[in-house]
Amino acid sequence: xxxxxxxxxxxxxxxxxxxxxxxxxxxxxxxxxxxxxxxxxxxxxxxxxxxxxxxxxxxxxxxxxxxxxxxxxxxxxxxxxxxxxxxxxxxxxxxxxxxxxxxxxxxxxxxxxxxxxxxxxxxxxxxxxxxxxxxxxxxxxxxxxxxxxxxxxxxxxxxxxxxxxxxxxxxxxxxxxxxxxxxxxxxxxxxxxxxxxxxxxxxxxxxxxxxxxxxxxxxxxxxxxxxxxxxxxxxxxxxxxxxxxxxxxxxxxxxxxxxxxxxxxxxxxxxxxxxxxxxxxxxxxxxxxxxxxxxxxxxxxxxxxxxxxxxxxxxxxxxxxxxxxxxxxxxxxxxxxxxxxxxxxxxxxxxxxxxxxxxxxxxxxxxxxxxxxxxxxxxxxxxxxxxxxxxxxxxxxxxxxxxxxxxxxxxxxxxxxxxxxxxxxxxxxxxxxxxxxxxxxxxxxxxxxxxxxxxxxxxxxxxxxxxxxxxxxxxxxxxxxxxxxxxxxxxxxxxxxxxxxxxxxxxxxxxxxxxxxxxxxxxxxxxxxxxxxxxxxxxxxxxxxxxxxxxxxxxxxxxxxxxxxxxxxxxxxxxxxxxxxxxxxxxxxxxxx
Amino acid sequence: xxxxxxxxxxxxxxxxxxxxxxxxxxxxxxxxxxxxxxxxxxxxxxxxxxxxxxxxxxxxxxxxxxxxxxxxxxxxxxxxxxxxxxxxxxxxxxxxxx
Lengths: 593, 98
Prior knowledge:
Chain A is mostly helical. Chain A contains 22 helices and 2 strands. Chain A folds into 2 domains: 3-305 and 392-583, Sodium/glucose cotransporter; 314-389, no CATH class. Chain B has a two-stranded antiparallel sheet with strand order 1-2. Chain B has one domain (5-84). By secondary structure, chain B is mainly alpha-helical. Chains A and B meet through helix 5, helix 11, helix 13 and helix 22 of A and helix 1, strand 2 and helix 3 of B.
């Protein structure tokens, strides 16, 4: 069977599964719509959290980031996982004990103020919208590459699918489809990695293969071999190269961690388990399921890099026959050339491909002696690493079809989770909480479905007409969540004296400082030409890049909040009692409100 | 309402454990990340140690941290129920309701 038919069958089957689940898990009450009725088993919730959390960026881009940045990519790997430690110990159990439906609801009740609640809704929507645009784009791109439909059609199919299961089932539908999506994406990720690890090292477990000896008889370990191959071509040594200064890396990692802990679509997942103790263990399970992919990624990255260089540099460096002739390039090379993500330019006209680091002066001098006239692989998009992997390793067609279904599952599951966070903030926090307090449960459920539909349309529109800044904004979404929501939650739980004045001032200060810093270097609302300082190292405050500024924003938030709280009256007694009750484990009932 | 003594002990133990585990978290991520070059002089399972922490080690440490926290807190929860309400049966918390 040809690849295209097979891909349609596999992807179609997964879609039928998601729709079937959605129909079975219809939401009948607001409790089911917002928190899946609060009866999700912690392991199931951990799995759903894994799919919710791992987006198209984790599935498609991360291994590529690691392949090109080596050790330097550690900041993403650690930043995106270390946040779960914060979630498990500092937020999830307490917010579960509080037992309501949304993050802004906690902030509104704890700081006894509708203003605080509205500020939290604004912060939530800012962070979630910037994030969801990237996911919608991921859906469109995945469809267009795998199913060979155009980008817009792909996006419409994705929107229709999410529309069906998210409006029908709310959190309940999303939870069960996310579990199915996790299973699809984890198989899609690990199966090709196992084949490749087996080929290179003889060890089928990629995590072990990364530390094993090569199976080519050279007796070298895979990492030593990779270091040798890349340094001979003038690239930086794989296991030690870094992306930024040590301090910048430190702040960046911290921003991603607190952003992870502060992103509302992840936090709200811990409202769906029955008990406080389940919220704790569920965070642990989520990390177990995430770790399966995140420990595979470094192996995929390293092996793909090795395979790529081995394909092109077939013989000794500098010998006339040492490089792959362009005519003899493999089929996957041709396929990816068609997409424009891989580009070759025969600079020295010898009909062979030279791929090396021409920016390294020492290497450039050596290359000149060989008659090389610059790096000829003018474009190798890092996103193709995961997608091309099965083809590079010559795996059967069903594996390639599975990777397509996996990429789609990753993008769809995250988009649905984000859309639910946005729509519940609108229907539960703004309508029910502030503007239409007397609304009946039935009307609120309807309002929830309508705002979900609205959020999908807005996200779809932004996906069709992505603002110029869409690509680089995922990290900024983390910065915004980390600088506004995370500190407010922390202070609400751990600092009994924190009052509404402090919390509101802190959130506004934190998110403003972060946004201003980003705007100052990237343009106001990301419009080119309006930045008043160039986006260059010397202009950065203490050398911190704009994407990494969330941690500083959070510090400002903490500082301002504590200062203002000290100067104003302490919170009323019933709020202090509320904090006391959040801190004790007894009597965490269902999420009923 | 002033917190009862049992409540205070519970909270104190909880925050102490949390602080200790956060120190481990910080050391394994930031201190180890800062000194990665120095750590690379050691090897573990054929990996340079600093690189291993990035590829797998820190994630395993995070999992262990959460595991310790979960099991310790579950025990603390049970003790707390016993101490704060001695007359009640020694069961885990009911699945729902106050």
